[in-house]
Amino acid sequence: MACRIRKWEMSDARDLAEALSNTKVQDNLRDGLPYPYTEQDGKDFISDMLAADENETFAFAVTADSKAIGSIGVFRQQNIHRRTAELGYYIAEGYWGRGLMTEAVTQVCRHVFENSDIIRIYAEPFAYNAASCRVLEKAGFKYEGTLRDNAVKNGKVIDMKMYSLLKVER
């Protein structure tokens, strides 16, 4: 099974709601997402992503089986970090463990490096999320270190890991 990234379409809202109305998915994401996640929540998110400055926000649907199965985005930072961007992503639970997110990460990084002045993309997965760390490693990201007691998720203080990919390394 292959995946590809593409611009969001309003018709993706139902697939988005299905993927994000899963606590196993949300447990690996930052806080702030509604639960359950509704189709209207998906439409609002898609509208925001389609309206975003394309040189600041690189947001895509991850697709397979003719549907949106996840989300991936690269978000430019500010000030002295203006040529650095943060990567975030998730995939519906039914598609875990198939290598699809690694392919999506590879595709989005290639797109950002080829179509912007970004020189560094980083990601900060929760340290307990071994699958996400493995996705980054398989996509060529380098482990930079552990950010100790860096977040509070589900009432627990947790570590995060720092990974990065440089334009000159790809």
From TrEMBL:
Annotated keywords: Transferase
Single annotated GO MF: acyltransferase activity, transferring groups other than amino-acyl groups
Domain N-acetyltransferase: residue ranges: 3-167
Parts of the chain that traverse the membrane: none
UniProt cross-references to InterPro entries, sorted A to Z: Acyl_CoA_acyltransferase, GNAT_dom
PROSITE patterns documented for this protein: GNAT
Name of the protein described by the UniProt record: N-acetyltransferase
Protein species of origin: Extibacter muris
